[in-house]
Design goal:
alpha+beta; 10-stranded mixed beta sheet; about 45% helix
């Protein structure tokens, strides 16, 4: 045991040091980028600035990877120490009475659940992930195995299995004591918070100056003096020592919650699990294979000959932990490409350097035509969603923007990201970007000119439903105790096929708030200010014991999930 602890401690210390080094590297690059932008440099015109931005993105990815590994090592070390302490100090437990069982989750006496639980797990489909189900979905599955024969469950057994499922997956930790009243006296004056905001970054500073000039918000120099903190990077000291969720609303959920949305492989696994559960309306999903380790690589090998034999099917390999269009490769001939690169992929996964996602490429996307276009351009569609409160869970959504490629679409030249990768960071490298950038982005509602109204409405509703189901599947991570008092703005990017069906590409945390084009200039300032006002209102209402059934600051945001309405 002592040897294991020393090994785990050394591993935790190594990852901690590496995380700090990557953080310092990213911070130094960010300071250089901010200095160049303050001097008026633009990425499309300044190759040095573009190089710095690419290095900064890579440093952020390395920092996030190292921080995730550090968190895993730290958790393993804490578990090992807990086991050692328990082995030394805990008395030998007395044998339980044969007629009574105390459930460690509900802390109440109940019949032993082992037989019922094992029977239910055996009766349900093997690929069902119980922790991602909603209660109606579980009850629908149990209804499908109802009966009295072998492999079936009676109604009483199904009800008992459901109750144990609720305790396991919908009750987190031991029961909490009742919270003390927020306002002990009936005549106590309401708690009020001034609209004081702290944030970092050139883009956010420019927005806050606009809000200050209008007299709606005031910027402060230190996060502990603010009521709403807009965190661009990790303010570890403030998070750990000075942050009080009763007095501050902090933008950014914990890393464990963020990675469930920002990691492409995890998002795809979540969607696949939700679709395997069944239902009348599966989430539109491009088939894919998460490659997060050697086990995924080996599981793909038996299917690879069949995939390579599909005539004309294109694939795309994505780095699961990168964004802004970096780390993407469109594969025209899977068999030949796999023969050249499989060894490198396997080595990277063995060394835990990279995580990947191999996914079918949508080769027949819906195209938009600009004046003078012959064929049209590929585009993606961004929708924002805001986790405004974690307990109770309140999520709102707002329509975003359409982002077009700078070159017209063609079924060739798959290495050309200006044709096939719809991300503004990739389009900036085109020599005509400065000339055309004001044409490449339109509001979400601008798609109504290119689609029938009923098709547009069905597409938008499908996008919102996809976000809702993915967020609910990650409820356990969002509602962790460490996320109390936090909020975060996320983005979900979709690609549309020619029938108008939206396919989820990725979700992003730490959404970019640059507003240097006409559409962003009309969208981002309102978006960010509304997020700040919603966070401020939630903070005030919770401090005064108020209800979150309706949030008055939400003007363009519309409700998506609100647990107070149950």
């Amino acid at each position: 045991m002592a040897g294991d602890l020393s090994t785990l401690a050394a591993e935790e210390a190594a990852w901690s040091q590496r995380t700090g080094e990557y953080w310092e590297e990213a911070r130094a690059l960010r300071e250089q980028i901010d200095a160049k932008r303050a001097a008026g440099a633009k990425p499309a015109q300044d190759s040095t600035l573009m190089g710095l931005m690419q290095k900064y993105t890579a440093a952020q990815v390395q920092h996030n990877e190292a921080k995730g590994a550090w968190f895993d090592a730290k958790s393993a070390l804490e578990r090992a120490r807990s086991r050692q302490d328990a082995a030394k100090a805990a008395p030998v437990p007395a044998a339980p009475a044969p007629t009574e069982h105390v459930d460690p989750i509900s802390r109440s006496s109940s019949p032993p659940p082992c037989d019922i639980w094992d029977k239910g797990v055996a009766a349900l489909p093997k690929d069902v992930a119980l922790n991602t189900l909603t209660r109606p979905e579980l009850e629908a599955l149990l209804a499908g195995v109802a009966g009295t024969g072998e492999g079936c469950m009676t109604a009483a057994e199904a009800a008992e299995f459901t109750e144990h499922w609720v305790r396991r997956y919908r009750s987190y930790g031991p029961p909490r004591p009742p919270a003390p009243p927020l306002r002990p006296r009936a005549d106590a004056p309401p708690v009020r918070f001034a609209k004081l905001v702290y944030g970092e970054g050139v883009n956010f500073a420019a927005l806050v100056q606009r809000y200050e000039a209008a007299g709606r918000w005031r910027s402060v120099a230190a996060p502990e003096a603010a009521t709403v903190v807009w965190e661009r990077d990790v303010l570890e000291g403030f998070r750990e020592k000075k942050w009080d969720p009763r007095r501050h609303a902090l933008n950014r959920l914990t890393l464990e919650a963020e990675v469930e949305f920002a990691d492409k492989a995890r998002v795809l696994k979540t969607v696949q699990q939700l679709n395997r559960v069944g239902g009348d309306h599966p989430i539109p999903c491009l088939d894919g294979y998460p490659l997060t380790g050697p086990h995924d690589f080996l599981a793909l090998m038996p299917q690879l000959p069949k995939l390579c034999a599909e005539q004309g099917q294109k694939w795309i390999l994505k780095r699961a932990d990168m964004s802004a269009g970096f780390g993407l490769t469109v594969i025209e001939h899977l068999g030949a490409w796999w023969g050249r690169n499989a060894g490198t992929l396997m080595e990277n996964m063995k060394a835990k350097r990279h995580r990947y996602l191999l996914q079918r490429y949508l080769d027949q996307p819906l195209l938009l035509r600009l004046p003078g276009d012959k064929v049209g351009r590929k585009f993606d569609l961004r929708m924002y969603f805001l986790v405004a409160c974690t307990d109770p869970l309140v999520v709102l959504t707002q329509r975003g923007t359409v982002r077009m490629n700078i070159e017209e679409y063609r079924h060739s030249d798959y290495a050309n990201k200006h044709v096939h990768i719809s991300n503004i960071a990739q389009q900036r490298t085109h020599p005509r970007f400065v000339e055309l950038q004001h044409k490449l982005k339109i509001p979400h509602d601008g798609l109504q000119q290119h689609m029938a109204q009923d098709q547009f409405d069905a597409m938008t509703a499908c996008m919102e439903e996809t976000i809702r189901r993915v967020v609910l599947a990650q409820r356990k991570h969002i509602q962790a105790v460490a996320n109390a008092g936090r909020f975060e703005l996320f983005a979900a990017d979709f690609v549309i096929d020619r029938s108008g069906t939206p396919y989820l590409l990725e979700m992003q945390s730490g959404v970019a708030i640059s507003h240097d084009d006409p559409v962003s200039a009309a969208t981002i300032p309102q978006l960010v200010e509304e997020v700040l006002c919603i966070a401020h209102e939630v903070l005030m209402r919770k401090a005064n014991g108020g209800s979150l059934r309706r949030i008055h600051a939400a003007e363009r945001f519309k409700p998506l999930i609100n647990e107070t309405l149950r």
